[in-house]
Amino acid sequence: MYTTKTLRLGVLCSLIVCLLCMAACSRKTAEQKTEAAMAKKGGMIALLELANPEMAESVTAMIDARLAAQGIKYAGVHVQDGGLIKAELPAVTDEEAVERARYILQACGKLELWAAYRFPDLYPQLEQLHSTDSLLNILQAPISYDGTLIPTPAIGRVLMDDTARVNAILASPAAQAALPEDVRFRWSAHVVDYEYLELIALKATADGQPLFSGECITDVEQIKVKKGNIPNVSLTMNEQAAEAWAQYTREHVGESIAFVVDGAVYSYPTIMAEIPGGKSQIAGNMTFEEADDMVSVLKHGPLPCEVRIVEENIVNPK
Q1: Which pLDDT tens digit goes with each residue over 30-46?
Q2: CA contacts within 13 A on the Cβ side of 184
Q3: What angle do CA 42, 47, 49 make, to 5 degrees?
Q4: 35 to each of 41, 46, 59, 151, 262, how far by Cα in Å?
Q5: For the segment 214-260, what is each residue's pLDDT rounded down to a tens digit?
Q6: E-assigned strands of 105-175?
Q7: Do 284 and 295 form a contact (C-beta atoms < 8 A)?
Q8: Could you tell me which residues are beta bridge partners of residue 21?
Q9: CB atoms near residue 88 (< 10 Å)
């Protein structure tokens, strides 16, 4: 009996050793492929710092999945001493590719759907605030030539250099007293007319949250709208959220909804009819490449902690 147990234990230990060796060899092979690809094509090397180093392994896996979705072959993403992450991206050398890679590596990937105010709803409060904090002097408000208030969630356009001034005014005690408690302001994700950002007025739920968050999304993909060949990002909700979404859109026809990714508003369409089946689309001012990047980021959910590039180098082919 003792001999049999000893034999079984020996076989088990040998099996474990073999599996560990196979894993080590597999990793070594992957690292060798990355090294060979970097030597042949050059590429980008980035060192990432995490707000929570204990999340390094899960962050590494998610970034690896994002890069794979982008079609970056033989990318190497490994945890370093101290919880830092080293990312090696073969063939990523030109300015556009590097900029896209920065987004993929650092973007949180937090998606939210918010109800939205319309400019006429907030104009009395903004006018009251104007008497104390001259906000309307900075904003290019959506008012037509005949004085009509345009019903849009974008309450104004602001020169990029003036966004800090606007943020300070909105955070002032006067603004807090004048504006509704449930209003939240976010900037547009894209620049308008080369030098402006739009300021979007969102409406929080009773508990201060968006209507829906990324946790309810089961699939994300890019689709092309035939008319105008415009890129769109299609979102599919789980069954429970799909029912709530259908009910909300049925009850709020004519109102606006805002799609917010990582705190920036990508689009704020008007609800034209009930939207069944849990399907919706982000159709902002995006290029096809930007839509691709958004899909790669949103498809795998948000990163568990903040990530930022602390060191970056472009390596030329050897």
Answers
A1: 788 888 888 888 899 99
A2: 22
A3: 160
A4: 10, 15, 22, 56, 33
A5: 999 999 998 876 666 778 899 999 999 999 999 999 999 999 999 99
A6: 111-116, 154-159
A7: no
A8: none
A9: 20
Residue with token string 């072959």: 73
β-pairing verdict for 85-90 and 76-79: antiparallel
Q: CA 242, CA 274: separation in Å to the nearest integer?
A: 11
Query: Could you give the 3-state DSSP secondary structure of residue 23?
Result: helix
* Residue 150: DSSP 8-state: P
pLDDT class of 7 with cuts at 50, 70, 90: very low
Q: Is the pLDDT of residue 209 over 80?
A: yes
User: What whole-number distance in Å separates Cα of residue 128 and Cα of residue 149?
Assistant: 16
**Residue 18's CB: how many other CB atoms inside 10 A?**
10
- E strands, the chain, in order: 43-50, 76-79, 85-90, 111-116, 154-159, 183-187, 196-203, 212-213, 217-225, 230-237, 257-261, 264-267, 279-282, 307-315
| CA-based nearest residue to 279, from 245, 313, 228, 231 | 245
Q: What is the pLDDT of residue 122?
A: 93
Q: What whole-number distance in Å separates Cα of residue 36 and Cα of residue 76?
A: 11
